């Protein structure tokens, strides 16, 4: 059995945690392939709610091996506190595997993230402040620290020295901050080494052998398509590749192994942080979506910006990820509107545009062209099959499917594991 990728089709927070957890019971491995603890994935199991940041959501499924791939950036202090938090709640985390090639988010990366955001002022990205961008920048600049470096003190010291050489100049001379001492960083990182050691593995080998043995591997994306460093709304993006190709590089598995790419798609749109968002609402509808949908960031606690569904974005996600299916989430949140606007195209400088413009300037000028779809007022949270949905809800789903370019194979009608309508099986 082959590999599946599950990823965000919009700007993150689509419900990837819930969808991953739903499949977790039927797969052998769940792998995070990019991002870090900028993610906040919520899983609701019975009356228990979990917020996972760095750990794959599969950690909550006892039969599943959770894997942190080479493409992830790991903050060791967050890792250890997330593990102990789960252990205190009775979750067995002993199967976790962490790539020795994953990069470490060092304390100075977190400092640089916060300082640069402050320095950008009005032009800031609105990052999560977790050191994600600076850690990926170090990786690309070839001055990053990897998990394996924690096990060779001399190499670790040399690498921290090399990284801090330039950074301390910038911190002291440009940002007016105190220099960071090499010894202190090395000591802190070495302090985590032994606790992390049991989990460190050659995850590329493990995953490829698992696939050869017909095991099922699920790749769990962080963030979303429009936050992708290459394909998102640059520069208002994260610093990794949440799109499907990222699963290959971020886990060391070839594209020929991947048979299914599932886009998690909210029935409306949200975004956290700065950047263009054509269907954003600033009125009571936006407020209502935020309130009913509980749209507050799991990682930073920031209110999420809310707007209507944008089919241009969904089509784009289908294209750049080669999506085979959608998992439509939070349909229940739309209950109660008489009419629901859906953005079917943009108007840019007086012209109708059907596809996402590649030009940043054009996207900033994009105004949504809405089609009104009739709403429904019945409670749909108990619906178990597509036919249980009111006719107008069915038509809303069908319309979205037609506009978005891939079949909707599951529908979320509540946060719980069982609050899902399965249309086509993912496995
Ligand atoms: P992720 O980052 O993609 O995993 O999504 P988040 O966990 O940040 O945000 C999604 C939120 O919506 C969480 O609070 C989930 O519990 C919740 N959620 C997921 N699916 C559904 C759904 O179908 N209906 C409702 N009402 N809530 C959902
Ligand atoms: P999940 O996995 C929503 C956003 C930040 C900011 C931009 C860059 O829960 O969907 P970063 O700290 O990554 O450098 O911030 O990306 N962002 C997210 N927005 N969901 C996320 O993760 C996000 N992770 C980062 O708000 O705009
Ligand atoms: Mg989230």
Automatic annotation (TrEMBL):
Q: Needs which cofactor?
A: Mg(2+)
Provide the GO MF annotations for this entry: adenylosuccinate synthase activity; GTP binding; magnesium ion binding
Pathway given for this chain reads: Purine metabolism; AMP biosynthesis via de novo pathway; AMP from IMP: step 1/2
Catalysis performed (reactions) = IMP + L-aspartate + GTP = N(6)-(1,2-dicarboxyethyl)-AMP + GDP + phosphate + 2 H(+)
Active-site positions on this chain: 13 (proton acceptor), 41 (proton donor), 139
Known partners and oligomeric status: Homodimer.
Q: What family name appears in the similarity comment?
A: Belongs to the adenylosuccinate synthetase family.
Tell me, in a sentence or two, what this protein's role is: Plays an important role in the de novo pathway of purine nucleotide biosynthesis. Catalyzes the first committed step in the biosynthesis of AMP from IMP.
Q: What is the recorded name of this protein?
A: Adenylosuccinate synthetase
Ranked from the top, the taxonomy reads: Bacteria, Bacillati, Actinomycetota, Actinomycetes, Kitasatosporales
Q: Which gene encodes it?
A: purA
């Amino acid at each position: 059995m082959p590999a599946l990728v599950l990823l965000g089709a919009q700007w993150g927070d689509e419900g990837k945690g819930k969808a991953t957890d739903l499949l977790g019971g039927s797969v052998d491995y769940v792998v995070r392939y990019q991002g870090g603890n900028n993610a906040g994935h919520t899983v609701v199991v019975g009356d228990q709610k979990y917020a996972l940041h760095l750990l794959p959501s599969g950690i909550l499924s006892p039969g599943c091996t959770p894997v942190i791939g080479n493409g992830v950036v790991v903050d060791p202090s967050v890792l250890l506190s997330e593990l102990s938090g789960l252990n205190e709640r009775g979750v067995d985390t002993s199967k976790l595997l962490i790539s020795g090639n994953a990069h470490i988010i060092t304390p100075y990366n977190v400092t640089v993230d916060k300082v640069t955001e402050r320095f950008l002022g009005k032009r800031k990205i609105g990052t999560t402040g977790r050191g994600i961008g600076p850690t990926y920048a170090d990786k690309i600049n070839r001055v990053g620290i990897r998990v394996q470096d924690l096990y060779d003190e001399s190499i670790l010291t040399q690498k921290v020295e090399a990284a801090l050489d330039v950074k301390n100049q910038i911190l002291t001379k440009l940002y007016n901050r105190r220099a960071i001492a090499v010894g202190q960083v090395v000591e802190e990182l070495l302090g985590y080494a032994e606790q992390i050691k049991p989990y460190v593995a050659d995850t590329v080998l493990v995953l490829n052998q698992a696939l050869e043995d017909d095991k099922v591997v699920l790749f769990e994306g962080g963030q979303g398509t429009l936050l992708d460093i290459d394909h998102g709304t640059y520069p208002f993006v994260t610093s990794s590749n949440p799109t499907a190709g990222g699963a290959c590089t971020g886990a060391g598995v070839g594209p020929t192994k991947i048979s299914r790419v599932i886009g998690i798609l909210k029935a409306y749109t949200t975004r956290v942080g700065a950047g263009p968002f054509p269907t954003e609402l600033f009125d009571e509808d936006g407020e209502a979506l935020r309130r009913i949908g509980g749209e507050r960031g799991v990682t930073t606690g920031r209110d999420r910006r809310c707007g209507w569904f944008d089919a241009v974005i969904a089509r784009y996600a289908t294209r750049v990820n080669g999506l085979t299916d959608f998992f439509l989430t939070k349909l229940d949140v739309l209950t109660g509107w008489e009419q629901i606007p859906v953005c079917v195209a943009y108007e840019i400088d007086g012209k109708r545009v059907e596809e996402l413009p590649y030009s940043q300037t054009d996207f900033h000028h994009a105004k949504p062209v809405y089609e009104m779809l009739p709403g429904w007022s019945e409670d749909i949270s108990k619906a178990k099959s597509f036919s249980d949905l009111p006719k107008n809800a069915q038509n809303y789903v069908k319309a979205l499917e037609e506009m978005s370019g891939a079949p909707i194979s599951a529908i979320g009608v509540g946060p719980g594991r069982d609050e899902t309508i399965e249309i086509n099986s993912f496995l």
